[in-house]
């Protein structure tokens, strides 16, 4: 199984202003550094938990069909598409009516 991010988050779970308020930091020179720390902290926790904290899009590949296919970045809000390579080597898109996002 392979997994890769397709679309990075557009926002972080904690804003710069929330972090500044929490740390009681008043030095605007440190803002860029603090923003970087927010991203690093989120990514580290996502890797540790195999989950996500903000909306993002992931691609996941499997070696074959299994019942069920387990998605590795919960919580999953939706599935954009399911594609597979058929016996002729052609890419096919699975109809959304034949799969569901379960608990």
Can you characterise this structure?
With 103 residues, this protein is α+β, with helices and mostly antiparallel strands. The protein has one domain. Helix content is 26%, strand content 17%. It contains two helices and four strands; from the N terminus they run E-H-H-E-E-E. It has helices at residues 16-23, 31-49; strands at residues 2-7, 57-61, 83-85, 91-93. The strands form two sheets. A two-stranded antiparallel sheet has the order 1-2. The radius of gyration is 19 Å and the shape is elongated. It starts with a strand and ends in a 10-residue tail after the last strand. The mean pLDDT is 92. InterPro entries: Phage_CHP.
What brief labels describe this structure?
103 residues, two-stranded antiparallel ribbon, two-stranded antiparallel sheet, 2 helices, 26% helix
Short description:
The protein is α+β, with helices and mostly antiparallel strands.
SS-based class: alpha+beta
Bin the strand percentage: 15-25%
Rounded mean pLDDT is 92
Question: In angstroms, what separates the terminal alpha carbons?
Answer: 20 Å
The helix content, as a percent range, equals: 25-40%
Query: Helical stretch count?
Result: 2
Mass-distribution shape: elongated
What is the oligomeric state here? single chain
Tell me the major beta sheet.
Answer: 2 strands, antiparallel
Strand neighbour order, sheet with most strands:
1-2
Low-confidence stretches: none
